[in-house]
Amino acid sequence: MSVEDRAKATAKDIEGKVQEAGGKLTGDREAQVKGQAKQAEAKVRHSVEDAKDQTKRAIG
User: Fold this and answer.
1) CA 19, CA 55: separation in Å to the nearest integer?
2) How many CA atoms within 13 Å lie on the side-chain side of 52?
């Protein structure tokens, strides 16, 4: 697992949550959707890192 990649994914998740919340607060549907998309991207990145970890454990 790359700690740097994991940290980037976490930062992307937080960024998405803040953007979504801001969109809800202002009624900006586009900001909400973009925030949700960033959160989804972060989940995918975390899943990729999890898969890398599992592969390394299986091999090593």
Assistant:
1) 34
2) 11
List helix spans (H) across the chain: 3-26, 29-59
Query: What pLDDT was estimated at residue 2?
Result: 83
- What pLDDT, in 10s, does the model give residues 33-48? 999 999 999 999 999 9
**Is the separation of the CB atoms in 4 and 56 below 8 Å?**
no
Token couple for 6: 């994991």
Interhelix angle 29-59/3-26, nearest 10 degrees: 160
Number of C-beta neighbours around residue 7 at 10 A: 10
The yes-or-no verdict on residue 1 having pLDDT over 60 is no
